[in-house]
Amino acid sequence: FEEGRRDVRSFVRHASWFFQTHFDDSEGVMTPRYYEVANEVMVKWNMFGNNERETVHEIAEFMGDVCCGIKETLGKRVMCGGPAAAFPHYQRRDFAMWKLRVDDFYMRAGRCIDFWSEHFYDLGGGILEAIMDSVNSFTVHRYGKIYPQVVSEFGAFSKTWFDKEGKGAAPPTASRDWAIIHKTIGIMMQLMKRPDQILKTVAFVTGKSRWTNGEHPYPWAMLKQAEDGSYQWTPLLDIFKAFKDVKGEYRRSHTDDCNLVVNAIADDTNGYLLIKNLVNRTINVKLRHINGAPKSRNLLMRRLYLNPAPLSRSDREQELTRSGTPVFKTTVESPTLQAISMKPEEMVVLIYEFESPPKIQRRVSLSEHFTRQADLRPIRGQEALLYRISIPNADGSGSAWLKLGISRRNGLSFQANVIFNDEKIAYEAKSAPYYDGEWMPYWAMVKVPIRRDLVARDNRISISFNDDDPGWISSVILELETIEATDGPAEDESSEPVSASGETRNLLTNGGFERDLANWKHVGRVWLAYADSNVRSGGSAVALREQAQIEQQFNVKPGKSYVATVMGKAAEDGARLEVELQLRGAAVRRRAIESTVFSASRTVFPVRVNSTTGTIVLRVPQDGVGGYFDAVRVEEVQPIDTLELSSPVPTSLSPRGTISVTIDYHVRATLDIVVFIRRGSSYISGVRRTVNAGASTITLPVNLGRVTLIRGMYDLVACLRQVGGNYTTNVFRLQETLPVV
Question: Which ranges in 323-377 belong to alpha helices (H)?
Answer without folding.
Answer: none
